[in-house]
Design a protein that fits this description.
- There is one protein chain.
- The protein is α/β, with parallel strands linked by helices.
- It has seven helices and ten strands.
- The protein has helices at about 45-55, 80-85, 100-110, 120-130, 145-160, 175-195, 205-210, and strands at about 10-20, 20-30, 35-40, 65, 70, 85-90, 165-170, 195-200, 215-220, 220-225.
- It has a six-stranded mixed beta sheet, sandwiched between helices. The chain has a four-stranded antiparallel beta sheet with strand order 2-1-4-5, covered by helices on one side.
- The longest helix has 18 residues, at about 175-195.
- It is globular.
């Protein structure tokens, strides 16, 4: 990671909206390639709203914001899918499509982001399933998988388009301790081997000490970098 490189995510004096009201005032945050960044704070303090601003799901309030080269203040609707293709998102509740197989879940995302070549799609699906240790699960339905396996598939989905950053919103929140540890190690491995930046929302501060990274805390309608 080069501090003089261009940040993947950059907010300057940015007001973060949750619905119609500001939930975080004056956010200053720069995330550089290859970094691990945590956002901690109480429920309802604006952590997920920051994620939704990064993915252009929520509009940016006052201030400046750039994500993967896109200016959030002037982002055109037709460019939102292009921005999202450069971001991988992992949710607490997996958000897999329950009516189709693992392979079809992944194929759906690739086709939705512009992939057309069937052979290339099949090859990429094999690659990401290998990367998350799920290469034997391609034909399984999500309900046939454990929670940890579903989250591994969700991570495979997040890395399909080789994103510059993975946003992980409480990715271990629904998992037991041992399974959660495996998911955290997998995310660290992706960060280490691929240089993919990780931005993780978590309420579990012990994660931040076991897997060190920069830490931002949301409180009192602000989000500031802190030291544990």
């Amino acid at each position: 990671m080069e501090e003089n490189s261009t940040p993947i995510i950059s907010f300057s004096g940015a007001d973060i909206l949750g619905g119609d009201s500001v939930v975080v005032y004056g956010l200053d945050m720069q995330v550089y390639p290859g970094q691990v960044v945590y956002i901690v704070g109480k429920v309802g303090s604006g952590k997920t709203s920051i994620f939704r601003t990064i993915t252009a799901e929520n509009p940016l309030g006052r201030g400046e914001g750039r994500v993967c080269g896109y200016d959030l203040t002037s982002l055109r609707a037709k460019d939102v899918p292009l921005l999202r293709r450069r971001i991988g998102v992992v949710f607490q509740d997996f958000q897999l499509l329950m009516d189709r197989s693992v392979e079809d879940n992944l194929s759906f995302v690739l086709r939705a982001t512009g992939w057309k070549d069937t052979a290339a799609i099949a090859k990429r699906i094999t690659e990401v399933l290998d990367a998350v240790g799920m290469h034997t699960k391609a034909h399984k339905m999500p309900h046939q998988l454990s929670g940890g396996e579903q989250q591994r598939i969700a991570i495979a989905r997040a890395i399909l388009n080789s994103p510059e950053v993975i946003l992980a919103d409480e990715p271990t929140g629904n998992l037991d301790e041992e399974t959660a540890e495996g998911i955290l190690q997998l995310l660290q491995q992706i960060n280490r081997e691929k240089g993919t930046a990780i931005v993780m929302v978590t309420h579990n501060r012990s994660i931040c000490t076991r897997y060190p990274g920069r830490i931002f805390e949301t409180r009192d309608e602000t989000c500031q970098e802190i030291a544990l």
